[in-house]
From TrEMBL:
It comes from Kineosporia babensis. This is AroM family protein.
Length: 229
């Protein structure tokens, strides 16, 4: 049986993620590790983004969420990667950039996989909508989607928490409508936190196809591990 390590920038287990990964990766053993597994609320709060730092958001073990700075996470992810010598491959459960990490095993980095896939899927389209979790991340996807010939438009809605009293689904629905009204012909849910039920909300409200970051990565991982999925 193939063994895949799933490394989240938050805390394991990711009960919102692994059931869907198991669907796409039948016959693969999943080993979960989290960059914040050993950290409590005060330590996590101290990792808040500083000016100029890339802003990341992730899910915690108790179902809550955290907003953290990229600079705090990279060394923690690197430490985990160095320890994973008994797996066949490693998946980073984050779409942020991790150019500075090294891995002893094949490393599946979503930010390297999503852009080319979306470029192929969007050939001939005029506008592609990118959905990110936070307003601070609206400028982040620029380089990731440089291969697209379509115009890229970005909106935000968190997969982890509602905003201003709204539920998560209400926030997703509103963002989907905004992207559709702006002319998006395809929507990319650019965070590993966006799930299959969330895709259904986005599709219903926008009326256009929706691509999940997690499904792109999982399906390509299935090819690498030859699961037959």
């Amino acid at each position: 049986m193939a063994r895949l390590a799933v490394v989240t920038i938050g805390q394991a287990p990711r009960t919102d993620l692994t059931p869907e990964l198991r669907y796409w990766l039948p016959g693969v053993e999943l080993i979960e590790r989290g960059a914040l597994d050993e950290d409590g609320p005060e330590a996590i709060a101290a990792m808040a983004p500083k000016p100029g730092d890339e802003v990341l958001t992730t899910r915690l073990r108790d179902g809550g969420n955290a907003v953290i700075g990229h600079q705090h996470i990279v060394p923690r992810v690197q430490k985990i990667l160095h320890s994973l010598t008994d797996v066949d491959a490693i998946m980073l459960a984050c779409t942020g950039e991790f150019d500075d990490v090294e891995s002893p095993k094949p490393l599946l980095r979503p930010e390297k996989m999503i852009g080319p896939g979306v470029a192929a899927l969007s050939a001939g389209l005029a506008k592609v909508g990118i959905l990110v979790p936070l307003p601070e991340q609206r400028n982040t996807p620029d380089g990731k989607y440089s291969l697209l010939s379509a115009e890229v438009i970005v909106d935000d809605a968190s997969p982890y928490v509602g905003v201003n009293g709204a539920t998560v689904d209400a926030g997703l629905a509103a963002a989907a409508r905004r992207l559709a009204d702006a002319g998006a012909e395809l929507i990319v849910a650019d965070c590993i936190g966006y799930s299959q039920p969330m895709r259904a909300v986005l599709t219903q409200e926008s009326g256009v196809p929706v691509v999940l970051a997690r499904s792109i990565v999982a399906r390509l991982t299935a090819e690498l591990l030859d699961t037959g999925a």
